[in-house]
Amino acid sequence: MSLLVVPLAVLWPAAIGLSLADGRRRSAGWAAVAALGLACAALAVLTVRVVAEGPVEMVAGGWPADVGIRLRADALGAVFALVSCGVLCAALAHAVLTGTHARLTAALTLFMGLGLTGLFLTADVFSFYVFFELAMIAAYALAAAEGRPRQLGAAFIFAVVNLLGSFLFLIAVGALYRATGTLEMGEVAARAAALDPNTAILIAITFFVAFGVKLGLFPFHFWLPTVYVSASPAVAAMFAGALANIGAYGLLRFGGVLLRRELELAAGALIVIGTVSIAYGALQAVARRDTREVLAYSAIGHAGYVLVALGLGGPVGLAAAVVFSLANALNKALLFLGAQLHGPLMGAAFLLGALSVAGVPPSPGFFGKAALFEAGVSAGSVATVVMLFLGGALSFVYLFQIYQHDRWEEDRPRVPAAHRVVVVGVALLVLATGLWPEPLLAVSEAAGRELAGGATRP
After folding, report:
1. For the chain, what are the domain ranges?
2. How far apart are the C-alpha atoms of 97 and 319, rounded to whole Å?
3. By Cβ atoms counted within 10 A, which residue in 312, 336, 398, 453 is the most buried?
4. Phi-psi region of 54 (alpha: psi -120 to 50; beta: other; left: phi over 0)
5. Is the CB of residue 187 less than 8 Å from the CB of residue 143?
């Protein structure tokens, strides 16, 4: 069996099997964690291989290349799949340790992991759409899984708004097929340069709006704070640290490879939208006092950094978008998981995540911000560099505010040791990544080179 298939082959039967079990039982929860752990191990081996030897590709089931589902792993897809699967594994383990109150939490998490892994490893636009929808449907169900009125209301808004995104995405896929005659990503990239500019721009805008609506990018963010605040800490960590990666990956893959000319034409607009998003998210976060509400608005602002990096473009800008997205996924997972836990150890873990988000060394967030500064300097954009600095300063302000508000009160109850295990583990991973950033930087640079070179085939 190809290494490409192993993560999907582990997650698919496990998700189906556990959908028949009671996920509130710890045995079912730990079985799901074990399946995600096996998938992460396979993805780690796959990531090391593609960084060292280059992309690998296959057509599932031995079908002809124009009929079967084409799977492909390059540095970009493999590392996004690895980080997303790791976040889901940690978040589900945290949910199991603190108590799972919904019957289908374990199965839905596996279905989300299956959808995310599939879309990161597919080389076909329609398969990307199918896996995308699988992940999003699982997310809708997880948002409402515990059945509390506030959760149900947020999940309803989440689902209705994202149905619009699905409709737009499907229109863009149909238009892309009509214009190029194929949905295989390599062929689309090769034929896109010959498209009529007006047609290509409309397709690119439709894809961008679809990603923006579905993933809460500014100015399509209005549903995101409600969903993040109403969800349980584990589910919010899944959304912020794993599901949101679709936005960065989709913009990198579709803009950096499939519709590169259109990305270059829209560079200025992306920088403007990204800058406004950074300022809006930071100012809204400064005005809030609830920890998870602050983190939700922070997520909106941090999506702006990715848009700015895409607008700057080139190998440096694209690599900066990758390293920032991956560091942000780890940071947000840590902060959401630890948001409602108290005590000295949890305070230290939360502080580590906050410093990483603010870009204070040694932390992965520092290297993400440093990569963005380097991209701005390389592009000669003084205004972008200034905005990145101000955004980082505001991040430090609002994170210090919530740390002061939540962590300096002495009457907060301590939490059982079991509840702290996963948060401490993720904090140690964040610290280790900051102290030894070479693997993160190496895979991000490899992804940036592949994107800038337009590589879509081995």
Report:
1. 6-453
2. 36
3. 336
4. left
5. no
pLDDT in tens, 403-414: 777 665 555 556
pTM (whole model) above 0.90: yes
Q: CA 138, 303, 111: angle at the middle one, nearest 5? A: 15
Q: Phi/psi of residue 249, each to 5°?
A: -65, -45
Task: Please name the amino acid found at residue 265.
Answer: L
pLDDT digits (tens, 9 = 90+) for 26-36: 888 899 999 99
Q: Which residue has the tokens 């896109």?
A: 192
What phi, psi does 124 have (nearest 5°)?
-130, 130
For residue 437, cis peptide bond before it (omega within 30 degrees of 0): no
Cα separation, 177 vs 149, in Å, equals 42
The dihedral sign for the CA sequence 85, 89, 95, 100 = positive
